[in-house]
Each structure stands twice: as structure tokens, then as C-alpha cells.
Amino acid sequence: MTEKVLGRRVVADEIVKDIRQRVSHPATIRELMRVLSIPKENRYRFRRLISKLVQTGDLIRIRGNRYGLSDRMGLVVGRLVVNHRGFGFVTPDRATSDQSVFVASDHLNQAMHGDRVAVRIEKNIGRSEGRVVRVLDRANEDFVGRYEAGNMGTGVVVPFDPRVVMDVHIPAGEDLGADSGQMVVVRIERWPEPSRGAIGHVTEVLGCLDDPGVDTKLIIRKYRLPDEHDASAVAECQLLGDTIRARDRRGRTDFRSCPTVTIDGETARDFDDAITIETLPNGHNWLGVHIADVAHYVKEGSALDESAHKRGTSVYFPERALHMFPAPLATGLCSLKPGVDRLVQSCLMEIGHRGDVVRYELHDGVIRSDARMTYTDVSAILTTKDQATRQRYAELVPMFEMMDTASRRLGDRRRRRGAIDFDLKATRLVFGEAGLVEDVVAADRNCAHRIIEEFMLVANETVAAHMQKSDMSGLFRVHEPPDPDKVADFDAFVGGRGYKLGAQPDRVKPRHFQRLLKRLQGQPEERSVAMLMLRTMQKARYQELNLGHFGLASDAYVHFTSPIRRYPDLITHRLLRRSRGDKLPMARVDELDGQLPEVARHASAMERRAEEAEREIIQWKKVRFMVDKVGKDFSGYVTGVTAFGLFVELVEPFVEGLVHISSMADDYYRFHDSEHALCGESTGKVYSLGELVAVRVVRVDSVRRQIDLGVVEILDSVPTSALDRVKRRTRVPRYRGTAAGTRRGSRRNRTRR
Fold first, then answer.
1. For position 753, what pLDDT does the model report?
2. Cα–Cα distance list, 220 to 194, 213, 613, 687, 719 (Å)
């Protein structure tokens, strides 16, 4: 952010620095202009700059139209995250520590979840506590909720997200014809104030919660996922056509004579990677990973590019997908369908006997896929040796056997260097003819999944190594080492179960985690410890600087293999094309490279949004599947232990529920953080991470999307009357409003690396 002041370009931070050095107290704009010697002709621009500094939170306007430095006034600026119980935490924008500021519900000052706020620190001993003094940026201009009709044609919308703790009043005639109980999208017209609540109008009626498809639409609206492509982007797709032109093939390496296949799930429609492989005279494998050349069609700054950047990634729901690109491109021109010519960027690698990449080549190519294979068919060929399937693809069987050999070599090499393989099963929903979930099971991973994963990993690593060796700019996929304190806690926990990492927390390497996982294979606590290990790790993200990838034990890693569904992959393709011939003026190169940090930040944020949305819709469908299971008993493993209870993942069906501490009424249970256990004071009972327990479904709440479980041995030992009292005590109260309108109450089955 810059403004022209005093005839020169001045960075906003420099203005803040000048105010910090030369102004000793909160001052009016006139005082600031006088002290900083702002000429008369530049005062309008100076006022604009001050307004922008207020928006960013660097300056805070107080009574008397005075402006002061937020940090000197004991204020912290950051993003507010509200708990469903009404309190919140503010994570500072410019954090000097990992500590967030706690804000009690009475001190939110009409701020809402996601808002950017200024908080005054009122207690800084132990846990920092504060009070919201200013909302700087509203995050919830519109949101989804349940409409409840009132008197005289008015109504109220109760937010679907329990973290948004404010109901919105809907005036008469502004409900768009919604009926009570229907889910709607509401836009706020007047923000809440201390003496009055929020007012808005309904912009879309989604339907009742139990109506087919409403759950998906609701999640799309909640996370503000664009579900329709811009008309300009669609128009650009139509201009591209559906076939490649003769001129598009010029200068490209022709791979059309090479046997080539795609391998994806049964329901996949966007095929962005294809494989060729042969055995060389020295016994090595010559592996070709061909990726759809989206960068050839999607030019920087085009409507397609802007739309893809905004989305960041495709989002995959159980019943539909929100593609990053319009269908004519995602499932048409750029999809590597069999029997048609397609443009690709190719990474060809010689894979040695020990899985090392002996040499590699990068090409702009053209392919013609011979077959669209599924994971199931390839597994039938290689694992079960199904004769009918092998006969159907007789000409390709030798190629699949070569793939199997090469992938095993690559996997062995990764494990030798210490890469961590988390075999955490994903959820697969089984739908019936009526579109309802009939079962929830753990998704199977067969040898075909392993083949494709190994090939994509080695292609991504090879491209990253090339970019590093060539001193190219890049958008790297980084995974930093875990925090030593978290490692120490994890090591202490597994140490209590007879395991050890075998390294100091600040010197731990990926191989130490890998060796532990290998020791845990087949043990009852394997999945639970693996999940705790995963929570110990940092989250992978995009970064313009290469920081390595801890989990993969890789010096450099990029995303190259999915440009149809991930924007960072498209950026990698553009950088490769630029290095191979798309020469640009240095000024333009510097400009593009300067954009990489923001692209990395935005892509990481969009990835998190997509993951949260995908996870929530799956959880919601699980909850609805369990509605008729109340009163039934199941076996499950303890996957998490907190002060408020146990998280238990059932063996069958593959769902997770909560055993609330209040339902454990046979004793007083104390939470032991270091041991991840709840221990009974009188009985001596211990419920710890990884333990197999018998549980009963006590309650299923579709609104809160929560499955309440109870430990069978406790439920059977405690009188029913006592449990009824527990249920009444733990029921969440719902309030219809205060003066301020507040409520208070207590894609693919491929790993994202």
C-alpha cells in the first residue's frame, strides 16, 4: 500500500514509523499533518492514507476523532474465531508469539466469527484476555441459517454455523417467501449495535434440511464456494473448442505411438495424468508421466485464469464436484480421454533398480491415451489375477506389471530415506438408489492407488529438483519440521506404551516417525497413534521459498501433476514453459515472481477452505445415516481424549462420535493430558487413546451434526434416572435474543501432501 505524499512514494509502514517517532500521543488529523509537515496540496491524499491505516488496524480512531498507534494503546489487531459457546479468540496479525487473546462473550462488542477486530488487552498474566473495541472488517456479510417466522410477517434467521452467535431480524416482506424451518441465505443490511440487533433480508431459499441436495447447497453457501462459473470464463472455454489444432502440435514431442493409459476412480471425469512405461535393456524402467497442458490454453490474466485463481482448487463432494475450470475445459479439452489427441507437459524419468531417478527429460508433448483404466480393474489385473479382466486388457497387462515393479522400487527408495506413510483410511459413503446413504465404510486403497501415488510423487520431486538446479522461481509445497514441544509430548505418550522415537525432540527426523509406524503395524493402537502423530506435524502449505518437505523426507517438492484441479500446479506449468521458451522481459518476470507470495498464501487458504467443506459435508451425511441407530451398541477405538470426553471411531459403520464426560456418571473422571487418558478417581478405570470400547448411540443431533455416544459398561451400571438428569443438564440452551440479537449457550482418493 503506497500513497504519493510530499512528491515521493512513501510506504504506509514509513508513515507509521514517522508517527511512532514524532507523535507522542493520540492526535487529530490536523495535529498529525502539522507535526509531520504535510503540505496543503497533499492533505487530501494524507487523509486517505490515514483511513487506509485505520482499515488495516495500524491506527485506531478514538473519541474526539483522534488517531493512535494500536500497539501503544494496548490493542491487538487480528482475526476473531468464536466458539459455539459464545466466547472467542483473536489471533494477532503480527504475532510475536503463538498466544491468542481470549475474549469473553460479554466482551465481543457485537463482533462476529471471522471478523477482523481490534482488541484491548485487559489481562496479560498467564492467558491474555481482552475486549473487542473495534470491528475493522466484517467477514459475514451473508450467511446461511434457519428461518423462523414470527408475528406480523417478520422473522428471524438462526445461523447454521454455531460460531456465528447472532440471530438476524427479517422485516416483513423480506423473507422471499420462506417457510418456518427452511434453510435460507441472509444478507445483513444493518450490523448489530449494543441497543439493537442485526437486520437483513433473505436472498435465497435453500429448502428444508432433509430435502435431497440441501445439505450440499448449504455447505457451498456456508463456505462461500462459487458453484457457477463466470460467463466470461465459460465464453473463453467455448472459443477454445473441443479439439486440438494442427498448429498446437508444432514443436512438441510426439508420444502418440507410446502405449498410454489413465488410471482413476470409477466416477472421475477429469483425467489430468496419463502414464507410459517401458523396460530398458539395463533393466531400468523408462517412466513417462504426462500431465494435461492447461497452461497452453489458460493465459495469465484471462477470465479463465482469474476465475481459477479465485477458486484455488476443485472441491469434491459426495454427490457433485465444483471444478476449478468450466466443464468444457476440465472434463473436455484438457481431460486426457482415450482415443483423442491431447496436449501435455511430460516428465520422463529413468528409474533405477533401487528406485533412484538416474536421468530425466521434460517436454511439451502430445499423447493419445489407449485406455481409461480404473483402480479396480488394475487391481484385478495385478492382485487377484482376474482372468476376464486380464483378457479384456491383454495388450496392456505387461505394461501394468512394469508399473507395479517400478512403483515398488520407488516406494522402497522413499522408505529408505525415511518418508512417512500415513495409512489413514478415508471415508467412503455408499449410496442407495434413492440417493440416501446406505452405509459408511473405510475406503479401500489397492495396488493401483499405490502405483499412481508413487508416480505422481516422483514426478513432483523431479520437477522440483529441476527447478532448484536451474535456479528457477517456484511455488513449492513445503512441510516444515514439527514443533519440538509437540514432539516431546508425543514421545512421552508413546513412551508410556513401550515405544520410543529414538531422537531428541529438536533433532527428530522423518525416519524416526516412520520406524515407529512400522513397529505399530497391526497393533490395536496403530490408527490412534498415527492420528496423534499427524496432529503433531505441521500442516503442508505453499511457499515461494523452498523449505523442504519433512513428511516426504524430500529436499524439494512442488505440485505439478494436477493443473486441472489445483491452481499451484498451473503456476508450476507456466514457470516451466517460461524456462523452455516463453521469454518475457525481465521487468515482467520480476513482476510475476513478486506475485508468488500472495498466490501461495491464497492457494493455501483455498485448500483449507475446500478441506473443511468436504469434511463437514461428510460428517453431516454420517450423522444423518446414524439417526435410526439410537440405542444400538457398537465397538470402536478411542481416537481422541479431551477434558470434556472421548472421541470414538466405530469399527462398523466408519463414523465417529463423542462420549461426553457428563455421561460417564459412574465416577469422577480426571483428564491426564500427557497420557491422553480419562481416569476414574474411585473406580480406577482408565479410558485412553487407542483403546477398544463398547459404546451405545445415545443421541443423534442433525442440527448440531453431532453423534452422542455412551460407554456401554457405564450406561448399564448407572440408574436410568441418573442418566436422564445428566441429559437434562447437558442440553444446550437456545435463546431467541437479547437486545443485541445474540444467542448465548454453553475428490479423489489421493493424499494431499
1. 64
2. 31, 11, 8, 38, 44
Angle at the Cα of 51 (from 46 to 52), degrees rounded to 5?
A: 95
Asked if domains 142-208 and 626-730 share a fold, the reply is yes
C-alpha–C-alpha distance, residues 220 and 144, integer Å: 10
Picking from 461, 452, 455, 402, the residue whose alpha carbon sits closest to that of residue 280 is 402
**Which CATH number is 142-208 given?**
2.40.50.700
- The C-alpha atoms of residue 15 and residue 50 are separated, in whole angstroms, by 9
* Residue closest to 690 by CA, chosen among 647, 637, 649: 637
pTM for the structure as a whole: 0.84
> Residue 281: CB partners within 8 Å, gap ≥ 6?
none
Contact 538, 482 (CB under 8 A): yes
Q: Label residue 384 exposed, middle or buried (CB < 10 Å: 0-12, 13-18, 19+).
A: exposed
Span 74-137 CATH architecture: Beta Barrel (2.40)
Amino acid at 126: G
Among 489-493, 689-693, 724-728, the range scoring the smallest mean pLDDT is 724-728
Spell out the CATH class of 2-71.
mainly alpha
The highest-level CATH class for domain 626-730 is: mainly beta
Beta partners for 166? 742
Tens-place pLDDT, residues 222-274: 999 999 999 999 999 999 988 899 899 999 999 999 999 999 999 888 899 99
* 3-class secondary structure, 51: helix
Q: Is the peptide bond before 653 cis (omega within 30 degrees of 0)?
A: yes
- Containing 158, the helix (H) or strand (E) segment is strand 155-159
Are residues 486 and 501 in contact, defined by beta-carbon separation less than 8 angstroms? no
Give the Å distances, CA to CA, from 400 to 172, 373, 380, 619. 66, 11, 11, 36
d(CA 98, CA 104): 19
d(CA 661, CA 671): 10
Q: What are phi and psi of 126, to 5 degrees?
A: 75, -110
* Number of C-beta neighbours around residue 195 at 10 A: 7
List pLDDT tens digits, range 303-325: 999 999 999 999 999 988 999 99
Which DSSP category does 691 fall into?
-
Record the cell numbers describing residue 33, joined without a space: 499533518
Q: Exposed (0-12), middle (13-18) or buried (19+): which is 750, by Cβ within 10 Å?
A: middle
Q: Read out DSSP for 580-649?
A: HT----HHHHHHHHHHHHHHHHHHHHHHHHHHHHHHHHHHHHHHHHTGGGTT-EEEEEEEEEETTEEEEE
What is the domain partition of the chain in residue ranges?
Answer: 2-71, 74-137, 142-208, 231-477+553-615, 481-537, 626-730
CA 716 to chain centre: 40
